[in-house]
Amino acid sequence: MLMYTSCGWFFDELSGIETTQVIQYAARAAQLYMHVFDESLEPSLLDRLTFARSNISEHKDGRVVYEKFVKPAMIDWQKVAAHYALRSLFEPYPDHERIYCYSVDLKDLVTEDNGHTRLTVGRAQITSEITLESEILSFGAIYMGEHTMNAGVRVYRGEDNYLALKQELSDAFGRAEFPDVIRILDRHFGDSTYSLRSIFHDDQRRILSRDHEIHRLRK
After folding, report:
1. What does the alpha-carbon distance between residue 148 and residue 143 come to, in Å, rounded to a whole number?
2. Residue 201 CB partners (closer than 8 Å, separation 6+)
3. Concatenated DSSP letters for 110-172?
4. What would the pLDDT profile of 49-73 be if each residue is shown by its tens digit?
C-alpha cells in the first residue's frame, strides 16, 4: 500500500526524494514476496521502471535510480549482521539490540587486539520484527587502521564449523598475519564480505569522526 502513496508520483524528477521513497516501498514489497514465496519479482519491477525516464541524463531511468539509490538502501539479515560485526570493532553492543526493524540477540562474541589492529568473531540471532522470521548468522571482522576494515557474514553452520572459523582467524591474527586474516574471511564467507560502507550512515559518520580523533591524538 505504501508504494502507491500519491505524493510520490507527483514529481518533477524521478530521482527526487519522494519518488525514490515509493520505489523503496515497492522494493520492500518485492523483498517480502521473495521471503514468502521464494520467487523474485525484482526483474519484472526493473523492466517496468525502465519506462520511467529521468530528467537528469546521468540517472537515465527508473532502473538506474533503483540500482543507484534504492538497492543500496535495502536492509536484510546479512546487512544487519555486517553492520553489527563492523560496529562491534569500535563499540560494544548489549546482548540484545534493536537495529531498525530487526532485533539482534548476541550468542557469542570474541574480540582480540594486536597493536592498533582489532579482530572480532561472533554469532547472533537476527529477527525481523515485521515478519518475525529469524536466522542465526556467524560473522568475522577485522579493523586495520584508518578506514580499512573487512567483515564476512554467513548463515550459522553449526558449532564445529564456527569453532574452526574462530580458531583459524585467531591463529592468523595472533601471528600478525593480517593478509591471511583477509584471505580466511574471503574463503569462509565468499561473496558475503563487507567494508566500511556497510555500516549504516549515522554510525559510519560517528565512527569516522572517532577514528580521525584517535589518529590526531596519536600524532
Report:
1. 6
2. none
3. EEEEETTEEEEEEEEEEEETTT--EEEEEEEEEE-STT-EEEEEEE---HHHHHHHHHHHHHH
4. 999 999 999 999 999 999 998 987 7
